[in-house]
Write a structure and sequence with these properties.
This protein is mainly α. It has 13 helices and no strands. The protein has a domain at 150-262. Residues 10-26 have low confidence and may be disordered. The relative contact order is 0.10. 38% of the residues lie in helices and 0% in strands. It is globular and about 60 Å long. Bound molecules: heme C (5 copies). One heme C binds next to α2, α3 and α7.
């Protein structure tokens, strides 16, 4: 490269960097810069607010379900059984809206994008052959399904609850009321940054379908979540065999003291 050329490329680079700075002030950052924005990665993502994510992903909230499927089925006539329960409000909504903005979601929960999204690695292909040294490799968009299991697992083992059978068949004998027992048992509950514990207790008192909704009523899995077992007033000294390997505190990511540090 001769001298003139070098000089020219310097000018071009300078001009480019000037336009980028001008761009940043007036327009959203370009695609690749947004894709690789530190907000998608740990540690920045751990303290990201919904507003931050929505500044680029507003479509997540705005998007609507189709009124009619490509095959001609009207969405309003395609209800799943859980959508016929008293706890389900309004017409069909998208997955994201059902966790962030619908009536029930807003009342009972306080979910953030980062409750489910813990890091967005834009890589689309896993290492082939699989490399065990790289177990934390996540693919684009992946969300840990254990998060979902907390609210979409099976009803916990009824025998441990002292119930004669699954809630589906035992509920009538117990006045469809979880609080008959849970006013005194496992009373330290829901103290996590993605739930509204007071609202849950108030709604659960009126209608135990609210409780059942997250503990078997919207079951997408065959297993039940191994909940942490917080101590409660009046708890027996002996830990039952099944509970010996249970944590006694919520996942640290969800503990409320963390919210105070990380949220805004
Ligand atoms: C500066 C803008 C910007 C911000 C802020 C941002 N994103 Fe993104 N995000 C992007 C872009 C651009 C892509 C790539 C989209 C594509 O390729 O279709 C992306 C991709 C994603 C994807 C994968 C989508 C897909 O279709 O593969 C997820 C999930 C995601 N972002 C979640 C988040 C979350 C959660 C936050 C907040 C912690 C966030 N993003 C903040 C711009 C942003
Ligand atoms: C209840 C858990 C949950 C919450 C809360 C959540 N997401 Fe998602 N999100 C998911 C799942 C699951 C997917 C689909 C992943 C897949 O396709 O593999 C997804 C997909 C996405 C995508 C990819 C585009 C698409 O529609 O498939 C983007 C972008 C995204 N989420 C952004 C957000 C933002 C921004 C927020 C907060 C305003 C948010 N999400 C809150 C679970 C969640
Ligand atoms: C903190 C509890 C909680 C977590 C965690 C959670 N959900 Fe949900 N989910 C709910 C509640 C409550 C509703 C019902 C909301 C309503 O009716 O407005 C729901 C509704 C749904 C629906 C039905 C949407 C519809 O319109 O019929 C699907 C599907 C779903 N969740 C999947 C998931 C997946 C996948 C995850 C994990 C990425 C997840 N959920 C995590 C509580 C949760
Ligand atoms: C007959 C009394 C009784 C009724 C009714 C009852 N439970 Fe329980 N439940 C228990 C007992 C006892 C335990 C276990 C206590 C322990 O940890 O030693 C338990 C444990 C649980 C657990 C924790 C499970 C785990 O694996 O850690 C959840 C969640 C739960 N119950 C939800 C409910 C819901 C929701 C309802 C109503 C739909 C309900 N229970 C009705 C007595 C009851
Ligand atoms: C919006 C979803 C949701 C609703 C509604 C809900 N729960 Fe839960 N419940 C959860 C989640 C998530 C956890 C685990 C929280 C954690 O990790 O500490 C949990 C934990 C529990 C536990 C274990 C407590 C412990 O930490 O030892 C019991 C018992 C329980 N719930 C009973 C109930 C009862 C009774 C009701 C109704 C009054 C109810 N739940 C309503 C989502 C829900």
């Amino acid at each position: 490269m001769n001298r003139h050329c070098q000089y020219l490329s310097l000018v071009v680079m300078l001009l480019c960097s000037m336009t980028i700075t001008a761009d940043q002030k007036t327009q959203p950052a370009d695609y690749y810069r947004s894709l690789w924005d530190s907000v998608h990665f740990s540690p920045t993502i751990n303290s990201a607010t919904n507003e931050q994510c929505l500044s680029c992903h507003q479509e997540i909230i705005n998007r609507k379900v189709r009124a009619i499927s490509p095959a001609g089925v009207k969405s309003e006539s395609a209800l799943a059984w859980y959508q016929t329960l008293t706890t389900y409000n309004g017409s069909q909504e998208t997955f994201h809206r059902r966790h962030l903005v619908t009536l029930l979601a807003k009342k009972l929960m306080n979910m953030k994008c980062t409750t489910c999204h813990q890091g967005e690695n834009p890589r689309e292909e896993a290492v082939i052959p699989p490399d065990t040294a790289n177990r934390h490799f996540t693919l684009r968009k992946s969300v840990n399904p254990e998060v979902c299991l907390m609210c979409h697992g099976a009803f916990p083992d009824y025998k441990r609850m002292g119930l004669p059978s699954h809630w589906n068949t035992a509920r009538d004998a117990f006045q469809n009321n979880c609080l008959l027992c849970h006013n005194g048992v496992r009373t330290h509950r829901h103290q996590v940054n993605f739930l509204n514990p007071e609202a849950i207790e108030a709604s659960g008192k009126e209608n135990s379908d609210v409780c059942f909704g997250c503990h078997g009523g919207r079951q997408w899995y065959r297993i039940s979540y191994p909940y942490p077992r917080h101590s409660w007033p009046g708890m027996a000294r002996e830990t039952p065999e099944w509970a010996k390997d249970r944590p006694t505190e919520s996942n640290s990511r969800f503990q409320i003291k963390q919210r105070k540090i990380s949220n805004k």
